[in-house]
Amino acid sequence: MTNAIEITGLRKTYAAQGNAPAKDALKGVDLTIPSGSIFGLLGPNGAGKSTMINILAGLVNKTAGKVTIWGFDQDVNPRQSRAAIGVMPQELNVDPFFTPRASLEVQAGLYGVPKSERWTDELLDMVGLTDQANAYARTLSGGMRRRLLLAKALVHRPQILVLDEPTAGVDITLREMLWNNVRKLNQAGMTIILTTHYLEEAEEMCDEIAIINHGELVIRQGTRDLLARADGKTLVIDAGGRVDLPALPQGARPEWRSDGRLAISYPPSRVRADQLLDALRGAGVPIIDVASEQPDLEDVFVEMTRA
């Protein structure tokens, strides 16, 4: 299947409540997510990401538009479309009186998974909860509960996995475990949709990224192409201490850092690194060491969501 998800003209308007006016959370979003990809869905708080995810999961009714999940129109085949997707929510909503094993068994039953096809023990092992399999969920730490949420999202072997802020407030060990599992699932063919405020994670993990702001799709591009939109690089030069600087090409902005190194920011579309180095050498500025710093996804994100 070419696209795991196809969204056309998706709108969601929340009705006015009390003194609060009606709110357009999504304003006609068109988006396709390729099957087998790790796709980043980014945006500031209130941008519409959670609304979109809840619509995909069948938890929120859309106002208008068409949503197709794994080839199933959500309006025509709601049961099949829901079965194709698993969602790991941001909220730690686990039943405190169920054990992890019982939680997974109940979840599998809700999806109609026959007992002969359940993989509860494998899931517990995958997320590192084998030793806690029979402990009440209320005794689990926050990190363990988040592991349980991942396992619950996978009980019915969905083709698509949505991770909504999966590493919010977790430690490094859990984060590494989660990303290792995500990579393995993706390599096995599962489509992953990731929302996160940790932009370095999206930069490292995602093949493509869509940025939503004010309920509208701002941009959707491959991660490398998106990073290339930030027209700015920095040369960091060790000159052995502060020295007088010559005139530099227009657009270059020199700054002495607290560690004594010279940082020159410049737009590579108009200035080349060799022009900067030639200008320094021509003025007798010693160049003991030089490094280059690339723009990151945060730079692009801020620029795209500034309005």
From TrEMBL:
ABC transporter domain boundaries: 5-239
Q: Which UniProt keywords apply?
A: ATP-binding, Nucleotide-binding, Transport
Q: Does the keyword Nucleotide-binding apply?
A: yes
Instruction: Give GO MF terms, alphabetically.
Output: ATP binding; ATP hydrolysis activity
Q: Which Pfam families match?
A: ABC_tran (PF00005)
- Taxonomically, the superkingdom here is Bacteria
Q: Which InterPro entries match?
A: AAA+_ATPase, ABC_transporter-like_ATP-bd, ABC_transporter-like_CS, ABC_transporter_ATP-binding, P-loop_NTPase
Q: Please give the name of this protein.
A: ABC-2 type transport system ATP-binding protein
